[in-house]
Amino acid sequence: DTEVTQTPKHLVMGMTNKKSLKCEQHMGHRAMYWYKQKAKKPPELMFVYSYEKLSINESVPSRFSPECPNSSLLNLHLHALQPEDSALYLCASSHTGTGSYEQYFGPGTRLTVT
Amino acid sequence: GENVEQHPSTLSVQEGDSAVIKCTYSDSASNYFPWYKQELGKGPQLIIDIRSNVGEKKDQRIAVTLNKTAKHFSLHITETQPEDSAVYFCAACSGGGADGLTFGKGTHLIIQP
User: Fold this and answer.
1) Do A92 and A76 touch, CB atoms closer than 8 A?
2) Cα–Cα distance for residue pair A44/A61, rounded to 1 Å
3) B113 — contact with chain A (CB < 8 Å)?
4) Are strands B45-51 and B56-59 parallel, antiparallel or unpaired?
5) Buried (b) or exposed (e) across A6-41, using 16+ Cβ within 10 A?
6) Is the sign of the CA dihedral B95, B100, B106, B110 positive or negative?
7) Chain A residues closer than 8 Å to B101 by CB
8) I want to staple A67 with a disulfide (CB 3.0 to 4.6 A). Which of A75, A106, A113, B75 is the partner?
9) Between chains, do A100 and B99 touch, taking CB under 8 Å as contact?
10) What average pLDDT does range B78-105 have in this prediction?
11) How far, in Å, CA of A30 to CA of A39, rounded?
12) A57, A8, A59, A54: which is closest to A31 by C-alpha?
């Protein structure tokens, strides 16, 4: 089973709202990722967690706040977003170790900021 | 950082014909090259990958080739079917352990019946 689940599927929020995106995997992966994908563009890396610790932050604005409460869960907390933050937010997971490993993606959360 | 170029941006082929998508990368440290298929409204699906110590890999109708010297890799789909219609992304990764992927801009593959 290579399933990564994400909730909610769709989210509409105002610029003053606070919301959270959730991601879950039960493949025993210890690396989890957030990507952002704008329409007709490739996914762009935002954050990487390795063994529940933030290991990569691609200079993402502080209005995006990631959290990895345990090895199966990954959250993305959203606050004071801008309309240009509207996008598909993808979660992925992989094994980690001395080599590069397959990353499996969830279906994404389509976020609209009004 | 890594830069991945992907061509063509759109590819239309007749059902049953072959399709080839090409990518080049810039970072000689990159050692892992996956290909993803993304259908409308879905997340990217890993379809095949290749590591830098291998020159070619095949899985049924799909194959990937890697030329490390030239820093390019290609996806080959034979006997194309309507369900192959999607956007295909190549990607490269240079890290060990957990490292993010750098994606090409994508190829919209259209299979004409």
Assistant:
1) no
2) 14
3) no
4) unpaired
5) beeeebebeeeeebebbbbbeeebbbbbbbbbeeee
6) positive
7) 43, 45, 103
8) A75
9) yes
10) 91
11) 29
12) A54
What torsion do the CA atoms of A10, A14, A16, A18 make, to the nearest 10 degrees? -10
Number of neighbours of residue B80 by Cβ within 10 angstroms: 21
What's the pLDDT score for residue B95? 67
Q: How many CA atoms lie within 13 A of B53 on its CB side?
A: 2
Selected residue of A100, A102, A104, A105 to mutate for chain B interface (largest B Cβ count, 10 A): A100
Per-residue pLDDT of chain A (114 residues; tens, 9 = 90+): 679 999 999 999 999 999 999 999 999 999 999 999 999 999 999 999 999 999 988 899 999 999 999 999 999 999 999 999 999 999 999 988 767 689 999 999 999 999
Q: Cβ of B97 and A98 within 8 Å?
A: yes
